[in-house]
Amino acid sequence: xxxxxxxxxIKAGKIAAQVREFGKSLIKPGAKVVDVLDQIENKIKExxxxxxxxxxxxxxxxxxxxxxxxxxxTEFKDQICKLDVGVHIDGYIADTATTxxxxxxxxxxxxxxxxxxxxxxxxxxxxxxxxEIGKAIHEEITRYxxxxxxxxxxxxxxxxxxHTKPSIPNYDTGDERTIEExxxxxxxxxxSTGKGVVYESGEAGVFMLENKKPTRNPITRQVLKEIxxxxxxxxxxxxxxxxxxxxxxxxxxxLKQLGCLKEFPPLVDESKGLVSQAEHSxxxxxxxxxFTRI
Length: 294
Known about the structure:
By secondary structure, the protein is α+β, with helices and mostly antiparallel strands. The protein is built from seven helices and 17 strands.
C-alpha cells in the first residue's frame, strides 16, 4: 500500500469515527430513525467524506441492514440500537459500528460485543490465524453468557468494495489461513441473547447495482443513471425516493425483473434474541492500525 492510499484510509477512518460518535448522540427516545440517519449522512459529507453504504440503525432483534424508506415513522423508545456507518475517500472505505441501549437494561450485552472486539484487535498481527481471531470473539461473548452470531462476520475492505477477503468470523471456524501485512478489513462481533443465527426478514431499504441492462423506459433509465453514480457501492432506496418520488417504485420493479439489483433485507435473530454490535476497521502493517478509533 502506498502512502497516498494509506492516508485516504486514515482520513476515511477519522471521519467515520467522528460521525459514529455524532450519530450516537442523536439516538434518543422520540427521535425518528430516518431523521437521525439523514443527519448522519449529511455529517459525512460536511466533514469531507463520501457515503460508503447507507447509514443503518438496526433495533432489538434486528442485527443489521435496517435502512428505512422515506415515509418510515419508526421512533426510538426503549430499544437496543446498532448504528453502522461507512465512509470512503476516493473509494477507500472505513466501516465502524456501535450499540446504544435506550432501555438501560442490557449493558452486559453491549459489553460482550465491545470486549470481544477489543480482545480480537489486541491479537491481530501479521501471521495470526483467522480461527484464532474467531475463537477470541467467541470466548469473550460466551463469557458473558451470550451467543456470537455465527452467520455474520467481519470482512475485507477493498477499493469501492465493501465486502472482500478476508472474512473474519465470530467463532472458531477452524480456518488455518493467516492475515498478512497490507490487508485492510473490518472486525465486527455481534452478541445475541438468542440463538446467534440471523435470517432475512422484511422489506429491503438497501440495494446494490449488480448488473447493468438496457431498458427503454425513460423513468427506469433516469433512476439507473443515478444509481450508477454510486460506483457499485450499496445505496438506500430512500435517496432515490427523495429525488424521483413515487416513480422509483416503478423503476425498481423493472430493475428487479431485469436482474439488475441485489437487495439487502434486514437481518433478524432467528429466536428474536436482542443483539449488540461493535466494529472497527484495521490496516495491517507490522502491527494493527485501528483507523476508526477516536
